[in-house]
Amino acid sequence: MDPKETKHVSAQAAESFTTRILTANGVPAENAALISKCLVQADLRGVDTHGITRIPSYMERIRQGVLDARARPVLRQITPVVAQVDGRNGFGFIGAHMGMGRAIEMAGEYGIGFVSVKHSNHVGMLAWVVQQAVEAGMMSLVFTNSSPALPVWGGRERLMGVSPLACGAPAGEEKAFILDMAPSVAARGKIYKAARRGETIPGDWALDGEGRPTVDPHRALEGVMLPMGGPKGSALAVMMDVFSGVLSGSAFAGHVTGPYDPSRPADVGHFLVAIKPDLFMGLEEFKERMDYLYRRVVGSEKMVGVDRIYYPGEIEQITHEERLKTGIPFIQAEIDSLNREADTVGVEHLVIS
Ligand SMILES: NC(=O)c1ccc[n+]([C@@H]2O[C@H](COP(=O)([O-])OP(=O)(O)OC[C@H]3O[C@@H](n4cnc5c(N)ncnc54)[C@H](O)[C@@H]3O)[C@@H](O)[C@H]2O)c1
């Protein structure tokens, strides 16, 4: 069988498969359903780097005892608008979902809610947290820190994480604003994906172990990711560490453990804010203004060679709608890797559409 042959899997099949594996590895059913939903949402949005292909690395962490499958995060109210979640080394998805849920409640009552999450794990694609807020009619800021992969400007060692920042705002008739970006030229997951698929990477994404630009994803994984916009990208990575790591009480300054390193708990931190959009005007007026902004952005005069201008998050929203109909494309090698996990715990394989 060709390891690069593409097959399609429905969102429902991907979700139930992931839930089966998670529950068989000790994750409580309710949490397994939520984690599966978040991962499949990434696959649906075309953020395949942060979808269900992450399952083997997450399960290895459970098997090695560095991620607690059964952990139940604990929430502590600090002030009327500030809360803290202790993730207790459980899945990042669970602590972040609980945190944003509380931030939304506080914003509903007081206009703003801020939650700091500590002792958490990899949280995947941040856009799912923003989507949680958008669905509740809230604006949001979502930051996380992550394991060292990026040098600070002028440095050559891996020190900062390729730590993403995301934010969003609901609209009226038009698409919601959803920005979700890593401060590197490309997310590190894109290098893992290219390595998995036997593909090359663009020469401006990473340096190899000797500090030379490389198109080989395996050599890139031995080196460092390049920050976007030079010193500005590495400054954003430091900012994610200040707000997610230093402030929360989690690991920071290069001490977060990566999702592919099963030797130690990750100790990731997150920073979550929800804001009520109708603080300064009525909700309808806010939504009309968001719709106007959308139309101004996508209707802007195009540069030569550009067919269409997209709003932040729009390409992913279009992909989401398409993949709900066509299914999610996986290559055979990815399906085989997932099915090996299924065999490990004796559950049914992934159902291909
Ligand atoms: N949890 C973690 O530790 C971690 C670490 C790194 C990245 N990630 C995730 O990886 C994902 C990918 O990050 P990335 O930086 O590679 O994203 P990206 O470069 O693909 O996209 C970044 C942003 O730019 C927008 N965009 C992209 N192309 C556009 C276009 N042509 N027109 C208008 N807008 C456009 C996207 O909608 C998105 O909001 C994110 O979901 C991020 O949360 C997670």
TrEMBL record:
Pfam families in UniProt: Ldh_2 (PF02615)
Keywords for the protein's UniProt record, in alphabetical order: Oxidoreductase
Superkingdom per UniProt: Eukaryota
Keyword flag Oxidoreductase: yes
Gene Ontology MF, one: oxidoreductase activity
InterPro entries linked to this entry: Mal/L-sulf/L-lact_DH-like_ah, Mal/L-sulf/L-lact_DH-like_NADP, Mal/L-sulfo/L-lacto_DH-like_sf, Malate/L-lactate_DH-like
Family indicated by similarity: Belongs to the LDH2/MDH2 oxidoreductase family.
The protein, known as: Putative malate/L-lactate dehydrogenase
Organism, scientific name: Aspergillus coremiiformis
Taxonomic path: Eukaryota, Fungi, Dikarya, Ascomycota, Pezizomycotina
